[in-house]
Design a protein that fits this description.
Layout lengths: L2 H9 L9 E3 L8 E4 L4 E10 L6 H18 L3 E11 L6 H17 L3 E9 L4 E11 L14 E4 L5 H9 L5 H12 L4 H8 L4 E4 L4 H13 L2 E4 L9 H9 L6 H10 L3 E2 L5 H8 L7 E5 L4 H10 L6 E7 L6 E3 L2
Parallel strand pairs: 4-5, 9-13, 10-13
Antiparallel strand pairs: 1-2, 2-3, 3-6, 4-6, 7-11, 7-12, 8-11, 9-12
Helix pairs in contact: 2-3, 4-5, 8-10, 9-10
């Protein structure tokens, strides 16, 4: 579902107010946050999707890392998770299902999160993911409504997973690209919790289905600001991504096309080429964190990202005062 369609649905629902609900769906943040006491809050999220790679173990890893990411993007640490599964049991053997679950289990164990159960249904096509519960100190919540004018925007993973995985499905991706995108999507964003606990990041979001443009726009709306993006500084998975955009338009997924259409209403594209626009709108799976960093904290943030071996620590833009367009591309 597109973000615009989702917003239309949510507007039709009654609002339930509870003073302990600190973050809900109204700001399109990464997860919900519920205050437990004067010090701690729960962070809750759910995410699942159909296979985007052929290897069942890698699929399980990617799906789990993607679900866990929402908690890390809020500055929290996941503590428990529930498996969510749907399979056509006549087509997917138990051995394959077990490999998917082992992939998910490996990723949750990697970050100290316990899988304590789950639910499965029969489904025409495979789906897998997690419902995750985490905890966060109230002082460390990285809600997307806290961006401030002057903050630098730092990206922790390159873009292009939507285009790469579509190319893999069509048999058009090189083996090198396939290997690279699986490694990237499988890496957890656990560094988000470390950054929050060091209090050197003001706000954060992870880049997933709505693309960089969509998730940054949510942050700008929630914070009452606008943003400038430097397209030349935004890293892509590889040059092969741009080759695919230029030469194989069938490798640009439908979600990316929807994101680009939505972005046309809120983004000034003046300084972005057509292939850069597509990259910035690309629907990501297992994408990186987009961090709002006070300039005085940039060196500490970059050092932390290097310590945790994130794929990049690219300064790709900045937060500016509210303008007519939420986002402007600039040199």
């Amino acid at each position: 579902m597109s973000q615009q369609a989702l917003a239309q649905v949510l507007r039709q629902l009654p609002t339930y107010r509870n003073r302990n609900v600190l973050v809900n769906s109204s700001t399109f943040d990464d997860a919900g946050v519920y205050r437990l006491d004067s010090h701690r809050a729960l962070v809750q999220t759910v995410d699942f999707f159909t296979p985007i790679v052929d290897d069942p173990f890698a699929y399980g890893q990617i799906a789990a890392a993607n679900a866990l990411s929402d908690v890390f993007a809020m500055g929290g640490r996941p503590i428990t998770a529930l498996n969510l599964m749907g399979f056509p049991t006549s087509l997917v053997p138990p051995k394959t299902i077990a490999k998917i679950l082992r992939g998910g289990l490996e990723k949750t164990q990697e970050v100290g999160c316990a899988i304590i159960g789950g639910h499965s249904i029969r489904n025409p096509e495979p789906i897998y993911g997690l419902a995750v519960t985490g905890v966060v100190d109230l002082r460390n919540i990285l809600a997307n409504d806290n961006a401030r004018v002057g903050d630098l925007l730092v990206l922790t993973k390159p873009l292009g997973t939507g285009i790469a995985t579509t190319a893999i499905k069509r048999g058009l991706a090189s083996r090198a690209l396939e290997k690279k995108v699986i490694a990237l999507m499988s890496q957890t964003n656990s560094v988000g919790a470390n950054l929050a606990e060091k209090k050197i990041v003001r706000a954060a979001t992870d880049i997933t289905g709505f693309g960089l443009f969509g998730h940054l726009a949510n942050m700008c709306r929630a914070s009452g600001v606008s943003a400038e993006i430097f397209p030349d500084r935004v890293p892509a998975l590889s040059n092969e991504i741009f080759d695919l955009i230029r030469q194989r338009p069938d490798c640009v997924p439908g979600g990316t096309r929807d994101n680009l259409k939505a972005a046309s209403r809120i983004v000034d594209f003046a300084n972005a080429s057509p292939h850069q626009r597509t990259l910035l709108a690309d629907a990501q799976t297992g994408g990186g964190l987009l961090l709002c960093v006070p300039e005085r904290s940039l060196k500490k943030v970059v050092a932390t990202l290097k310590k945790y071996r994130t794929h990049c620590a690219a300064v790709i833009g900045r937060i500016v005062r509210s303008r007519q367009k939420l986002i402007c591309t600039t040199k």
